[in-house]
Design brief:
heterodimer, A: mainly alpha, Four Helix Bundle (Hemerythrin (Met), subunit A), two-stranded antiparallel sheet, 8 helices, 2 strands, 6% strand, B: mainly alpha, two-stranded antiparallel ribbon, 63% helix, 4% strand, globular
């Protein structure tokens, strides 16, 4: 198994875990969705918007689109239906990007600018690991908020994802 | 870069992030460390034990050795005991990962039988190594949230910031 396959596995897990959290969030009322819960982006809605926004904004950079879709704008999306649709679109875009990725590309340096325009240069695999970790971090906060409102998304452990995948229960 | 190097990078980050969280706990009292929080394992203390305990458990499994048991906090101060446990198992993890090969990463590891869905199942070593990495991120986020609620926000744990510190630019 190559490094590329490991990165793909990480993004398959990312989509699985996003789906689990979105499913739990779908059981919240509109009031609960936007209720302040002490998460980084205040509410379940705010945190989900941030996870999705991070995926979209970083993929834009990986594709060389130079912040065409700024994070602050993308993550401000509100309403679970709209956020769910944006996650679905992001998932499709990520899958397309991942399917065309090569080992050489993963090891290549990528020049990009952050939202404030500051220039950086970093190896692509590091940026891809960052976005996967970022999702795990903010999903944990979201899971805490969901649990506090009686909608525990259940275990998001990586081993359970792999067991489900090997049993054919993950698409 | 091979997948082994990627796994090593994930574990170097895991160790760094664990150390950041341990130091972020320094300003809070014993009572706050042991006090009930709205996190998955009641208190920051029990969650720290859970994070390091998972490392101990899985490392023993990868080595084919018996589980030595969860580290114990006891009646004494929590943080010195936890620093000691994390340092010991970070060191053991580094030693283990230093000897792992790409071929070994693809070998099958029988899963424990503590849950029905694991019974009789095996996964590759790299898959169960991903578990510890993800597990740490998840539970550190909970501790970070609890510390923020106690008035002690923690520095950003983004991988990209860690990588920039290590690799410049």
């Amino acid at each position: 198994m190559s490094k590329l396959e490991l990165i793909r596995a990480l993004y398959d897990y990312n989509e699985y875990a996003n789906g689990r959290v979105l499913e739990a969030a779908s059981k919240l009322s509109a009031d609960e969705l936007e209720r302040k819960q002490g998460a980084s982006f205040e509410s379940v809605e705010g945190n989900l918007g941030h996870v999705m926004g991070g995926q979209v904004a970083w993929l834009e950079r990986w594709r060389g689109h130079k912040n065409r879709l700024p994070l602050t704008e993308v993550q401000s999306l509100r309403g679970l239906e709209a956020i769910g649709e944006a996650f679905a679109a992001s998932r499709a875009d990520l899958q397309e990007f991942l399917s065309g990725l090569t080992e050489e590309r993963l090891d290549s340096m990528l020049a990009y600018r952050d939202s404030a325009g500051k220039p950086y240069e970093r190896v692509l695999w590091q940026l891809m690991l960052h976005v996967a970790n970022h999702g795990s971090y903010h999903r944990a906060e979201t899971a805490m908020a969901l649990t506090a409102m009686g909608q525990n998304p259940g275990d998001l452990d990586y081993v359970y994802f792999e067991i489900s995948r090997e049993a054919g229960h993950v698409g | 870069m091979s997948k082994l190097e990627l796994v090593r990078a994930m574990y170097e980050y895991n160790e760094w992030a664990n150390d950041v969280i341990l130091e972020a706990c320094a300003p809070i009292s014993e009572e706050q460390l042991r006090g009930k929080q709205t996190i998955s394992h009641d208190s920051i203390s029990t969650l720290l034990v859970h994070i390091v305990g998972a490392q101990v458990f899985w490392l023993a499994r990868w080595k084919g050795e018996p589980f030595p048991g969860f580290p114990q906090v006891g009646e004494g101060p929590v943080l010195p005991t936890m620093r000691e446990s994390f340092a010991a198992y970070h060191s053991e993890l580094r030693d283990y990962i230093g000897g792992v090969t790409d071929a070994r990463l693809d070998e099958m590891i029988p899963l424990p039988e503590w849950a029905d869905r694991m019974r009789g199942k095996s996964l590759t070593l790299w898959q169960v190594m991903m578990q510890i990495s993800e597990h740490g991120i998840h539970h550190r986020a909970e501790i970070q949230s609890a510390l923020t609620a106690l008035g002690h926000p923690v520095q950003d744990l983004d991988y990209i910031l860690y990588a920039a510190d290590r690799g410049g630019s």
